[in-house]
């Protein structure tokens, strides 16, 4: 059965005003519903820029991006309710408690108070934050902060979830908890677009990937097919083969 | 509505967690009003209510030195403390040792000099009138100079005021002496008394009227000046709390995260503005309450609120909006919290200084008075002064509203464009 697309990216290019060259050039990708789509590439490849464009944070200079909800194209306003965004930074209020953060961002996602309270407690429980829920988030460990960051992005049960390096700088336990929960979300129908530098994690988590380097897609498709085509045994080897071993500073 | 509630609640929670910001916004103005009012009130009392302590060393060999001392004593303005001896150097030491601030040395030739001068004047007059006068040669004594010592900490204008008072009593003595001499030359004996009385009693009187509109019952005093002035200063100090709050949200990505959500960013700004407007109003209520109820308990003048309540509320609103808008602008321009706090605080102190919060603008040089027009704090203060001290009306407030309106607009536009540049809006 052919999966319907969740996101169509058509020849998207982007150039920052201060840059001499395009950060992204002619990116065309289809991301399907229920995909766990890995946007992979070395530092400075353009992954975060592409996620920022997809989330509507920055406008693209050329090309088009379309979002679909069960096959029906959605407007810009509908897109904001459809997507969830978990940035690389701890983008929340460190002075507030986990509950207070979730209450605020949940309200900004248009959740009704009763639904919000129910969802908030569910997430705190699932992500192991209930005991610390009334402490200021600034006092949390790195792993706990990552889980709060994730909880905020998924509090409204988004159809499409963008994750920009969601497990960077956390211990194995927190990483496993985060990935496990993301897999559950995906099985429940959430499309996930994910960036990471952890190749083993990406290999375990993603079903499709796009390798981006110097702002261009150098390979994309099913993970298994790409490994077979390039005659490599794992994702890390594929990554090195296609992007080289030179430093990217 | 739930979103508005959530936004306001979030800002309130952030504010409650900002202990330093709260202290700066609420404790600082109370302390400043309390301390500065007490200090300035004592200065007011020295000038207006208390007798001026004055050390006098009378070395005069005649009667007029004593007469001057008696006149100064009977004026009720001075509390005279005599110093024995003839060495004026001792007087300086005594002045500093006794903490009297002012001292007067009457020289040994004081009477002789004045009498000699009065004799000369009466002889000139008699000669000009073609009347007979005693033309026998008399020894001329130069007009004496009394020496006025003052503590170096005393303000120059205060010193000149006291010297002016002493000079006016000296004139009375000199004039009286001249009249006595002229009457004696004309052999009119003691008939000069009526003339002297008339000359002293029928001098042009100066009626002191404080320039307020007739509706105002407020008398300018340290409370009426300081309570509004330091309240405005504290209002603008919200830049430290609100400014750094915005920088944090910009830098940590919260603003960008909000941009991906189905909510208008204006809601975020509305939450901030409404909470900090409430903070400014609360600052006014607290400090003004202190002026009304606490300061009188300490023997300080009571704050009298202006009669025009709608105008008063409007001035509070415009001042609060100016403070909030300035904080938003600094928060959107600064790259780090340190920049927002440092530049914000220093800029408010500079605005306060040039705006007449620390020193009234009327004592500044003319070019600084011109510069003060560029301080928003000056216009806020002007608004309060028009109402508090002049009993002003709406028509007198239009300049205040126009300037503050322009200032608010500029700050809001700067904030808008900076956030647009950063793709947050």
From TrEMBL, chain A:
Name of this chain's protein: ABC transporter ATP-binding protein
Lineage of source species: Bacteria, Pseudomonadati, Bacteroidota, Cytophagia, Cytophagales
PROSITE patterns: ABC_TRANSPORTER_1, ABC_TRANSPORTER_2
UniProt KW keywords: ATP-binding, Nucleotide-binding
A Pfam family of this chain: ABC_tran
GO molecular function: ATP binding; ATP hydrolysis activity
Superkingdom of the source species: Bacteria
SMART domains xrefs: AAA
Residue intervals of the ABC transporter domain: 7-239
InterPro entries: AAA+_ATPase, ABC_transporter-like_ATP-bd, ABC_transporter-like_CS, P-loop_NTPase
TrEMBL record, chain B:
Transmembrane segments: 20-39, 227-247, 275-299, 311-330, 342-363, 397-419
Subcellular location: Cell membrane
InterPro entries linked to this entry: ABC-2_transporter_component, ABC2_TM
Pfam annotation, one family: ABC2_membrane_3
Keywords associated with the record: Cell membrane, Membrane, Transmembrane, Transmembrane helix
A GO term for molecular function: ABC-type transporter activity
Bilayer disposition of the protein: Multi-pass membrane protein
Protein name stated in the entry: ABC transporter permease
Lineage per the UniProt record: Bacteria, Pseudomonadati, Bacteroidota, Cytophagia, Cytophagales
């Amino acid at each position: 059965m052919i999966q319907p697309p969740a996101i169509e990216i058509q020849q998207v290019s982007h150039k920052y005003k201060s840059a001499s060259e395009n950060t992204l050039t002619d990116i065309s990708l289809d991301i399907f519903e229920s995909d766990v789509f890995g946007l992979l590439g070395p530092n400075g490849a353009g992954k975060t820029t592409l996620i920022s464009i997809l989330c509507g944070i920055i406008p693209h200079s050329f090309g088009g991006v379309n979002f679909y909800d069960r096959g029906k194209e959605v407007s810009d306003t509908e897109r904001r309710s459809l997507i969830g965004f978990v940035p690389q930074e701890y983008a929340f209020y460190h002075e507030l408690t986990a509950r207070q953060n979730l209450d605020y961002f949940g309200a900004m996602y248009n959740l009704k108070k009763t639904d919000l309270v129910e969802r908030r407690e569910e997430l705190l429980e699932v992500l192991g934050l209930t005991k610390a829920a009334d402490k200021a988030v600034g006092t949390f460990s790195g792993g706990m902060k990552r889980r709060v960051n994730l909880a905020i992005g998924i509090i409204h049960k988004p159809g499409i979830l963008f994750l920009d390096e969601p497990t960077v700088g956390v211990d194995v336990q927190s990483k496993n908890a985060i990935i496990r929960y993301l897999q559950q979300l995906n099985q429940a129908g959430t499309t996930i677009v994910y960036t990471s530098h952890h190749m083993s994690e990406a290999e375990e988590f993603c079903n499709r990937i796009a390798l981006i380097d110097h702002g261009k897609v150098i390979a994309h498709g099913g993970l298994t097919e790409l490994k077979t085509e390039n005659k490599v045994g794992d994702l890390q080897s594929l990554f090195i083969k296609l992007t080289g071993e030179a430093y990217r500073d | 509505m739930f979103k508005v509630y959530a936004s306001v609640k979030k800002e309130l929670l952030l504010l409650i967690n900002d202990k330093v910001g709260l202290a700066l916004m609420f404790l600082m103005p109370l302390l400043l009003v309390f301390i500065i009012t007490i200090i300035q009130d004592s200065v007011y009392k020295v000038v207006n209510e208390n007798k001026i302590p004055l050390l006098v060393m009378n070395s005069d060999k005649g009667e007029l030195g004593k007469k001057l001392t008696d006149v100064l004593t009977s004026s009720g303005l001075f509390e005279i403390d005599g110093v024995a001896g003839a060495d004026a150097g001792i007087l300086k030491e005594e002045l500093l040792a006794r903490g009297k601030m002012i001292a007067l040395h009457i020289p040994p030739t004081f009477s002789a000099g004045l009498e000699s001068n009065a004799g000369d004047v009466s002889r000139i007059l008699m000669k000009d009138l073609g009347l007979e006068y005693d033309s026998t040669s008399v020894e001329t004594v130069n007009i004496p100079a009394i020496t006025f010592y003052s503590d170096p900490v005393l303000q120059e204008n205060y010193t000149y005021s006291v010297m002016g008072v002493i000079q006016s009593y000296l004139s009375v003595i000199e004039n009286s002496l001249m009249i006595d001499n002229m009457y004696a030359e004309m052999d009119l004996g003691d008939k000069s008394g009526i003339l002297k009385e008339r000359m002293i009693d029928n001098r042009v009187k100066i009626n002191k009227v404080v320039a307020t509109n007739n509706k105002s019952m407020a008398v300018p005093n340290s409370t009426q000046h300081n309570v509004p002035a330091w309240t405005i200063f504290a209002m603008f100090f919200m830049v430290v709390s609100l400014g750094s709050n915005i920088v944090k949200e910009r830098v940590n990505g919260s603003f960008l995260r909000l941009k991906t959500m189905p909510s208008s960013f204006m809601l975020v700004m509305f939450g901030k503005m409404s909470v900090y407007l409430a903070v400014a109003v609360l600052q006014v209520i607290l400090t003004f309450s202190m002026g009304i109820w606490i300061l009188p308990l300490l023997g300080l003048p009571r704050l009298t609120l202006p009669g025009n309540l709608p105008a008063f509320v409007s001035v509070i609103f415009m001042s609060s909006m100016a403070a909030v808008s300035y904080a938003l602008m600094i928060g959107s321009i600064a790259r780090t919290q340190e920049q927002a706090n440092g530049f914000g605080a220093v800029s408010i102190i500079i605005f306060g200084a040039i705006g007449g919060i620390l020193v009234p603008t009327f004592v500044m040089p003319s070019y600084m008075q011109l510069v003060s027009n560029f301080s928003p704090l000056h216009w806020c203060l002007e608004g309060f002064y028009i109402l508090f001290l002049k009993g002003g009306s709406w028509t007198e407030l239009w300049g205040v509203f126009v300037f503050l309106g322009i200032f608010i607009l500029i700050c809001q536009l700067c904030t808008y464009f900076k956030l647009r540049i950063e793709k947050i809006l």
